[in-house]
Amino acid sequence: xxxxxAAFGEVMMRxxxxxxxxxxxxxxxxxxxxxxxxxxxxxxxRFGHTAYLVSRLPDNPLGDAAAAYLRKLGIESSLIHRxxxxxxxxxxxxxxxxxxxxxxxSNRLESSFNTASSSVxxxxxxxxxxxxVHFCGITLAMNDGVREHMKSLARAVKHRGGRVIFDCNxxxxxxxEDGYVKAKPHYEEMLHLSDLVIMNEKxxxxxxxxxxxxxxxxxxxxxxxxxxxxxxxxxxxxxxxxSINSDNTHSLRGFLFKEGAFSFSDxxxxxxxxRIGAGDAFASxxxxxxxxxxxxxxxxxxxxxxxxxxxxxxxxTPMASEAEILRAMTEAVGDVER
Length: 338
Prior knowledge:
single chain, 338 residues, alpha/beta, ten-stranded mixed sheet, four-stranded mixed sheet, 14 strands, 22% strand
């Protein structure tokens, strides 16, 4: 049965260099609007849920353009506030082969979202409207004001019996020097409030400071994820392992830990058109599977297929429907649909 979900997060303007050029080579940029909350809310709306974005946009034509873009994605806008002057931006240079994609942020800390005062969001009112709330570690990195918004909204949703979802999404460039030390207490507080978490063993090792004598990633995962689940009383933990192959294809395998047991997806190998936002597609697949009562095996296969398909379209936002993802799980893809 469809649920009502709110994603808390910043709307950003994505400025992309065409093709595989560097910023220093090109004089043209294509723009769109994105953000983890945008991506997750849009994907869940596409799956049939009612999806709100809890955010703040500037009260100017740039904010108007962003709001129009969000409406096109099917995101409910009544919890989006207007105020301030700036929208966060990032510049994307597509990687190729050995050169990774590169994201350069601009103007984030002064954005309307990141300067919202404590009185902007009415946490209890938001919590009364929704079944589930989604947060992201990228948002957690911004500043103390944003962190307080996140924790207050999470507590309000928990108080009303809703579910809290947290995607760890640690970004070293956002936390700065000694980032893991700065981040750890905030991550721990969010994990204690969360029912479903997106992470892998690297988050346990580096952000949470856990230790293991295992050296292989899967062995580390199998040891550390159950320990995280127990320490923070988390019902469901899911994530991915990705590898980049010499022929420019990527391979992706998802996992889900629930009720003391792991489920793994098949390893999917595919060509990449646009990588940004694929992690949000995987997270959305996990959330949808949980909300719809899929088995653990079906949920992780669905999420991995959603992540794979997100690599095949331009822009951050997942565009695949539930039917398209289910078909990708069961049929050969790539032929012409007739």
